[in-house]
Every structure is written in structure tokens, then in C-alpha cells.
Design brief:
This protein is α/β, with parallel strands linked by helices and 220 residues long. It is built from seven helices and six strands; from the N terminus they run E-H-E-H-E-H-E-H-E-H-H-H-E. It has a single domain, classed as NAD(P)-binding Rossmann-like Domain (Rossmann fold, 3-Layer(aba) Sandwich), CATH 3.40.50. A six-stranded parallel beta sheet has the order 2-1-3-4-5-6, sandwiched between helices. The model has no long low-confidence stretch (mean pLDDT 96).
Length: 220
Amino acid sequence: MKRALITGASRGIGKEIADLFQLNGVEVISPTRDELDLSNRESLLKFCERFDWQIDILINNAGINPIRKLDEFDFDTIQEVYMVNVFAPLMLMQHASKYMKQNNCGKIVNVSSIWSNVSKAGRILYSGSKSAINAMTRTAAIELGENNILVNAIAPGFVDTELTRLNNTSEEIELILNNIPLNKLASVTNIADLAWFLCSDKNQYITGQTILIDGGFTCK
């Protein structure tokens, strides 16, 4: 049985990915915040030291997106965003890849965002951190390719989650839909299906890619 470590699996996209992987016979490890606080350096280092890294798949899904314009955030906010969105995934990739190298096999998927390719006001921290994830994905794919470890990123657009519905009025959702060629939000299943394909045995040659899954939003 394959083993997967998935962060941010308590709700939304992460939960759907975890559920789908379990349905396909993968043993899923999804740490709670008490077990792994991605915003806390000591918690991250302790987890990396104590965790049993005999895993076949790593999904870096957890992330935060505080909406702040250039003149609205302080150093603590910068540190938290980059700790959760960049430093933690990097550390987890570093430790997971050590075992994967020994096994000469592995799959890593980092969840990025369309806001790494396009942006809007208030996304300066989030866009920057997700752009970093894309770059790290490409470099890791180069370094780990000789060990048959495939590393990719998924960049979702607007996904139909509870958070999306809470953060946008019905009128705002309608405006978003008007800018999506498929005229609908992604479902969490759409995102999970892509993650599953990239981590399954069917994927033998896709690596180093950031795959946008946005219904064509970024084409406009």
C-alpha cells in the first residue's frame, strides 16, 4: 500500500484529495495543526525530525491568503505567509525526497494558484509566495528526476468551496463566472482528480510543470 502525506486536508480541496486517495487504496497521513503547525518554525522542525518519512507521495496543499495591499502589511504577516506557503513546503519536500531517493520513486504535488500567473490588488504576498512554489517545483523536478521522482504543481482558479461562497456575494460570483470561458466554478473533485492523476502510476513523464486548472480564466 502506498503512503501519502497531505497537508491542509481538513476541508475543501485538501479533504477531497485525501478522500480520493484513500478511496484508491492509499494510506493518507494528514497532520492536525496540533501535530504540525506550518506557521511555527519549532513545530515544523520537530515534525520533520520525528515523522516516519517512508512515504511515496507528498501533497503540499496547505496555504494562507491574507488580503493585504502593499502598504497594509507588517513583517509578521510577511513571515507567516512565507512560512506556511513557501518554507514549510520546501522543508517537507527536502525530507520526503530523501526517502524517495532511496526508493528510486516518488511523486510530489504542490498546490499553487492562478494568482502566481496573474494577480490583483491585495494579492502581493500570496502571488509572490505561489510564484515561489512554481519555481521550487521546477528546480526540484530537475534535481530529483534522476531518482524517478516526479514533482509538479497544480494552480487552481476559482473553486466552489465554502470559503469562496463566504468571501463573495452572489453578484460577485456572477461577475467571476462571466470571466470564466466555461462559465462555472471548478469543483473540489476537479482539482482532486488532477492531483490523483499526477500521483498515480499513469503519470510516468509529466514533471516540473505548473498546471493551471481554471476553466480558461487566465486565457482572457
